[in-house]
Amino acid sequence: MIKILVIDDDRMNCELIQSVFTRHGYQVLSATSGIEGLTLFRQHAPRVTILDLRMPEMDGLTVLKEIRAYDPHAPVIILGGGASEEQENQARGLRVTDFIRKGLSLDVLVECVNRVVQLPAKSVPALPVAGSAAVADTGETILVVDDEPLVRDLLVQFLGLRGYRVLGVKDGPEALSMVEQSPPDLILLDLLMPGMDGVDVLRQLRQREYTGGVIIITGSHDVERLDEAWALGPQEVVGKPIDLEQLLTSIQLVLVCREC
Predict the structure, then answer these.
(1) Among 70, 101, 117, residue at a domain's last position
(2) pLDDT (tens digit, 9 = 90+) per residue, 11-67?
(3) Which of 21, 24, 165, 197: disulfide with 141, CB 3.0–4.6 Å?
(4) Residue 215 pLDDT
């Protein structure tokens, strides 16, 4: 059974994460302090460590430094609610595997851990440091339109770390205003939004002769509304919860085909 270590001073958060991953078949160890977490890490050599960044006495960055001194390749996923850009860059400099903001759906964390454990040990890629040569600017702009702030922020962060210039807006009118000012290369468009939904936005984009790509994102099973969306010519429809790697592949294909 694959071992996961959770280090978080919030006991309720530890118990919640432990419960979720136990249901997914993992053996979960938990610690509510950095010192306790390091002791468990050395004793059990977990396959993945989930580490809170902000903890009293010994914070997440200090714990990460100690983990790196003990095992330079151990996969570590940071939970970084409220972290500054400087703290995030310090974590990336210590070869953190991924950086997930607190408050996001636990499905995102589970997907991240599942991806990590499928890779061979010591071959898990680390996040690049922002501004480093490893984060190559693709020169392509993506606009994320989603009324759910957690989903929107996740996509902006995920795609930004992969070299895209990413902007996020919360509704259709704001998206159309952005497109008027500076048309993006690609729009990720939520289907279900209050007021002006994705179909309405896409219809307006077609009337305005927007020539970029459009990928619809939806958790809806409304066949009639999906048919309306397809009739307006998006390049792809991606379901929620979002498989980030599948979405990235779809984005790359859309942008390459657009160039062709």
Answers:
(1) 117
(2) 888 999 999 999 999 999 999 999 999 999 999 999 999 999 888 888 888 999 999
(3) 165
(4) 96
Q: CA torsion 24→78→66→161, rounded to 10°?
A: 120
pTM above 0.70, yes or no: no
What's the whole-number mean pLDDT along residues 228-252? 89
Percent of the chain topping pLDDT 90: 42
The whole-angstrom separation of Cα 186 and Cα 62 is 39
